[in-house]
Amino acid sequence: MVTHATFGIERRYAASPATVFAAFSDAEKKRLWFASGAVLEHSLDFRVGGVERTRSRGTLGPGGPAVVFGNDSIYVDIAQNERIVLAYSMAVDGRRISASLATFEFRADGAGTLLQFTEQSAFFEGSDGAAMREMGWRHLLDTLTAVLANVAN
């Protein structure tokens, strides 16, 4: 059984589109907000056709068993400082739980940036589902807010 979902998130950052884009395109900067926790692996080949791979250890909810979360992405389209489109799958202990298409759009917004994020997903049996995935992205994009605030200071 597959469940399909689409959701969007907007964030405003007090940094230029080039600075926000760099937080996605530079491996060291991206790891600061994207690959947190008990990271086992994070690699980023940021180019069209390039692959990003992340493995981290965590739990399935409070008090849950320890598992390895996997995220494998391929970059489908990149427009410097404007847009990133990637296809990614997520796995828990090697079992794929979803496949998604994610689009990040960066627009100048006064002295900062408006980020528009859209995800279209197929969730498989035993997946986290759309509500949990959206909550996860909201957390990641909030972490990016803090990382960008430290870059500006």
Largest sheet: 7 strands, antiparallel
Strand order of the biggest β-sheet: 1-7-6-5-4-3-2
CATH classification, class level: Alpha Beta
Mean pLDDT: 93
What is the assigned CATH homologous superfamily?
A: START domain
What is the gyration radius calculated from CA atoms?
15 Å
Kindly give the count of domains.
1
CATH topology: Alpha-D-Glucose-1,6-Bisphosphate, Chain A, domain 4
Q: How helical, in percent, are the residues?
A: 25-40%
- What is the strand tally? 7
The SSE string, one letter per element, is EHHEEEEEEH
CATH architecture, please? 2-Layer Sandwich
Structural class based on helices, strands and sheet pairing: alpha+beta
What percent strand? over 45%
Q: Give the CA-CA distance, first to last residue.
A: 48 Å
Tally of separate helices: 3
| General shape | globular
- Residue windows where pLDDT falls under 50 for at least 5 positions: none
Give your account of this protein's structure.
- The chain has 153 residues and is of the alpha+beta class.
- It has one domain: START domain (Alpha-D-Glucose-1,6-Bisphosphate, Chain A, domain 4, 2-Layer Sandwich), CATH 3.30.530.
- Helix content is 26%, strand content 51%.
- The protein has three helices and seven strands, in the order βααββββββα.
- The chain has a seven-stranded antiparallel beta sheet, covered by helices on one side.
- A hairpin with a 3-residue loop joins strand 4 and strand 5.
- Helix 1 crosses helix 2.
- The protein is globular.
- The protein starts with a strand and ends with a helix.
- The model has no long low-confidence stretch (mean pLDDT 93).
